[in-house]
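Hey, quick one: can you model this chain's 3D structure?
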Amino acid sequence: MIIAVASGKGGTGKTTVTAALAANWKTPVAAVDLDVEEPNLHLFLHPSITGTEKGYIEIPEADERMCTSCGACAELCQFKAIALIGDTLLTFPEMCHGCGGCIAVCPTGALTESSRELGELCHGTSGDIAFHMGRLRIGEAMCPPLMKLVKNEVFSSYENDSRDVILDSPPGASCPAICAVADADCVVLVTEPTPFGFYDFKIAYEAFSVFNKPTGVVVNKAGIGDMQVYAFCEEHNIPIWAEIPYDRGIAEAYSMGSVITEAVPSLKPVFEELTRSIQESVHA
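Sure thing. Here's the predicted structure for all 284 residues.
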């Protein structure tokens, strides 16, 4: 089972929920930080990192001596990562999505495979929890290619394993968040009951609902704000799987890098119920 913990905006408590959910999962589980631009799940799970490797994306390298200026590569690339200006072939590696199409359509072999470093992939353990994360190279603009490398590593590692996977998704509802949610069996959408939280929650729900996956909501900082999130969930028949109260003890646990259920044991039943709701929704 693959669970994506997502949110419409940053700072809603997505990573806090991911860490507590993984720490209270009763069966073998892997916690994966896919927020490769700003990974911070490790700050709460404190894993022992046992392996790190560089991640690369395939990009084209041009040999102008072999180019006949046919323009097939530039015509194919929808991201303008390669262009023909007069008889001059130009490549823009930072815009390349690594599909390899330009190399495939080049009739003269003027384009060959090269690579660009995306960042690094790390894995380790936190107690019984397997841990994975990606960390984007400074200056790298695109997250999804590195996220896909992390997911490939995770999914291949547990292909013949009963271990469940919890993905800490990037915030928002753009390409990186969609990339994280796309492979999940279930989406846990974390939000706050405030006007700003509700605005981004609606956008995220509309973006993720096209996948038609079981989806439930965790309301963080329950007790503040207003009732717009609750009314929207009732109107659209979205279950609220958990509420985490606005509590100073939780804020202190977060600031100290602690899993909130360890610092505030009264929250353990909340996450046990959240786990049960997730499992029932997937197996329904």
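One thing worth noting: The two ends are 13 Å apart (CA to CA).
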